[in-house]
Specification:
32% of the residues lie in helices and 14% in strands. The chain is α/β, with parallel strands linked by helices. It binds flavin mononucleotide.
């Protein structure tokens, strides 16, 4: 009976344990989690979502405070088009976050950064260009492009000295999205180094509509593998979404996936950035507590615990401090929804917005508990403490369980 450890992901001469811990913003896939994954020989991700805020928390910088001060006069103005990111600050925050992580890296694995296109930051092209270029400057091993089709993203960094040596990959949820990406980038003569196929059971934003239940990862990945083979492309295809045990992973590796990307099991790792009390909510969740809804202003459905305090909350948009979801014209679907409710309650009291959420503020404050479909199985991966709470696990324990387990067994902590 095979184990994940019988397989390796080959990147040139490098052989990697084929376990990738996926990016989880905002700072849920923390540097500590990525560093442990790399130390154990796999691939860890940090995320550059809300990187100015992450830098403030990690390094005591004051980027968010400075931005709030600069745009203070605009706070009660519904027009946010003038609220811009300072590109030098964005570059510095990214370089600090990525650079300090890479300096601490040990072991044979790699660390990538997850870069979501939907973080349009009131200047989609220039901010994405700065994010990717600064991560490359700071020595990141690779960039995983996500939450968007990224048709122009390679072009934004094609003159960077590391464009051809860093690992660059993309997350897709259909063969069509991959075809589009390859077609749009054909002129650059630079293929992605890996393609992650994310199915409908993943956490975070989904590349499917509310009919996500109609799709399944095994079918989509078989289509992508066939396409890559037919086109004689030498690109590793990686399966993601709902891979909960080592045996789940082996079944994908045996049918042609080069590696698996996982996340949900690591949300209850000690090294994961979620607050301790939120990890307990993940443990206690039942299947009925996990919903897919459309409250994210990105336009993508998102999976989350239905008890997330963010749902129905009506806080004032915080774009002067954050503003990561402002489109190129300074709009965000939450601002529109909030203003509609404000018009009904002009005193500003008792505002509840049901259809959208202020994603930046809520994710930053860990009030929106995005999670994978199998979060309700996390309770089966650990033991309970005397007080009834669940024991969080070391990332090493979870990683090795994926790497060595057979027969769908899940090793409990000692
Ligand atoms: C809490 C959480 C947050 C996530 N955030 C992101 C994100 O910011 N960007 C992204 O591309 N994927 C995100 N994902 C998706 C994961 O990187 C991963 O591909 C997927 O969840 C794997 O499936 P699994 O959770 O069933 O193992 C997130 C997943 C979880 C559980």
């Amino acid at each position: 009976m095979k184990r994940v450890d019988d397989f390796r992901l080959k990147f040139g001469k490098k052989e990697i344990v084929p376990i990738i811990v996926g990016g989880m913003g905002v700072d849920i896939s923390s540097a500590e989690l990525a560093l442990e994954t790399a130390r154990l020989g796999g691939i860890g991700h940090i995320s550059d979502a809300m990187v100015n805020d992450v830098s403030d928390r990690r390094f005591d910088t004051s980027f968010v405070k400075d931005k709030t001060k600069l745009y203070k006069a605009n706070i009660n103005n519904s027009d946010k088009s003038g609220v811009k990111f300072d590109l030098d600050v964005l570059a510095e925050a990214t370089r600090r976050h990525v650079g300090s992580t890479m300096e601490a890296k040990k072991g044979d694995g790699l660390i990538f950064v997850n870069c979501m296109e939907k973080l349009t930051m009131n200047g989609p092209r220039e901010t994405l260009q700065v994010r990717m270029a600064s991560a490359l400057d700071a020595g990141i091993d690779g960039i995983t492009l996500s939450a968007g089709l990224h048709l122009g993203s390679f072009g934004l960094i094609s003159d960077h000295p590391r464009f051809r040596d860093a690992k660059l990959g993309i997350i897709v949820s259909s063969v069509r999205a991959l075809q589009l990406f390859l077609r749009k980038n054909a002129r650059l003569d630079r293929k992605p180094d890996y393609v992650i196929v994310e199915g409908p059971l993943a956490g975070g934003h989904l590349g499917f509509g509310l009919d996500w239940e109609q799709y399944d990862l095994a079918t989509i990945i078989a289509e992508v593998i066939k396409y890559v083979k037919d086109e004689q492309l030498d690109i590793p295809v990686i399966a993601a979404g709902g891979i909960f045990t080592g045996s789940d992973a082996v079944s994908f590796l045996e049918s042609g996936s080069a590696a698996v990307q996982v996340a949900t099991r690591f949300t209850v790792a000690n090294e994961c950035g979620l607050p301790t009390n939120v990890k307990q909510d993940y443990f206690t969740a039942s299947e009925a507590d996990i919903v897919v809804n459309t409250i994210s202003p990105t336009g993508y459905p998102m999976r989350m615990l239905k008890g997330s305090p963010a749902i129905g909350d009506g806080i004032r948009p915080n774009c002067e401090s954050y503003g990561y979801l402002l489109d190129g014209n300074g709009n965000c679907a939450y601002i529109t929804a909030y203003n509609r409710e404000l018009a009904l309650h002009p005193d500003g009291k008792n505002i509840s917005v049901q259809d959208k959420t202020c994603l930046c503020t809520q994710m930053r404050n860990f009030k929106l508990w995005t999670c994978g479909h199998y979060t309700y199985r996390l309770k089966d991966t650990t033991r309970r403490n005397a007080d009834g709470s669940y024991q969080t696990l070391s990332a090493e324990h979870i990683f090795k369980d994926y790497q060595f387990s057979v027969d769908h067994q899940i090793a409990l902590p000692a």
